[in-house]
Amino acid sequence: MTETGTNSAAAYDAATATLTVDGRLPLSAGAVAAVNAACDGAEDGRTAPHLTLRLSGAPAVPQADWVTVSLVSKWERVLRRLERLPVPTFATAEGPCGGLALDLLLCADRRIADGAASLVLPIENGATWPGMTLYRLGRFHAGAAAVRRAVLFGTVIGAQEAVALQLVDVLADDVEATLAAAVASASSVRGSELAIRRQLLFDAATTTFEEALGAHLAACDRALLQTAAPEAAA
């Protein structure tokens, strides 16, 4: 079966630098293309200096017939690309959030949810989907009982639990106002330096002090050179 004629779970609006994802819908080439388009816009500076992810919905049906390991690989690679963008990413989650929506939520820098939000790892063929969302959950939260129940048994993580586990940064009665404030607070963050610091943070979980030292010193050197450059030009 092909995916011709299906609705894509993801849509990108370049005018507002907003990626909207419906987690109820299955993975498709269209969804991969939409996330790639959002990354293109963020990387070439054509859009706003941030990317907004609007996420909702959780799957209620099994994976579509057209989903292959090759397509899943493309999806995981574009998620990794999004995690490394030179702009901050802000996600809003409203109501149940699972499937592709949950994948993207865990890749965002700042995660805002409403009080009705929940994180859902759907059960399919007797087990949860074993994609890289399990890796992202396990990297920092493997010891948390709620995460273990979600990964192994598909137990839903409620909004308050998600905040306690730091899977969500804040619950908001007014999601739009909270999003606007978060975007404003990050307005001074600069391009590639953001990506470098994000990567240093990621690497901290898997590298020793000695292994990490060189990368941190190189980042410090760049920062010092950037500080000196305006003074030299004055």
Question: Can you tell me about this structure?
Answer:
This protein starts with 9 loop residues before the first strand and ends with a helix. It is built from nine helices and ten strands. The longest helix is centred in the C-terminal third of the chain and has 25 residues, at 209-233. It is an alpha/beta fold and 234 residues long. Helix 1 packs parallel to helix 2 (69-83) and helix 8 packs antiparallel against helix 9. Strands 1, 2, 3, 4, 5, 6, 9 and 10 form an eight-stranded mixed sheet that branches. The protein has a two-stranded antiparallel ribbon with strand order 7-8. The mean pLDDT is 89.
- Arithmetic mean pLDDT: 89
> How much helix is in the residues?
40-55%
Tally of alpha and pi helices? 9
Strand content: 15-25%
Outline the biggest β-sheet. 8 strands, mixed
Shape: globular
Oligomer: single chain
Q: What integer value in Å does the Rg equal?
A: 19 Å
Query: Would you report the number of β strands?
Result: 10
Unreliable stretches covering 5 or more consecutive residues: none
Task: Measure the end-to-end span.
Answer: 64 Å
- Helix/strand-derived category reads alpha/beta
The topology string of helices and strands comes to EEHEHEHEEEEHHEHEHHH
Keywords:
234 residues, alpha/beta, eight-stranded mixed beta sheet, two-stranded antiparallel sheet
Topology, element by element:
Blueprint: E1 10-13, E2 18-22, H1 29-44, E3 51-57, H2 69-83, E4 89-98, H3 100-105, E5 110-113, E6 118-120, E7 123-124, E8 127-128, H4 132-141, H5 145-153, E9 157-158, H6 159-164, E10 170-171, H7 175-185, H8 191-203, H9 209-233
Parallel strand pairs: 2-3, 3-4, 4-5, 4-6, 5-10
Antiparallel strand pairs: 1-2, 6-9, 7-8
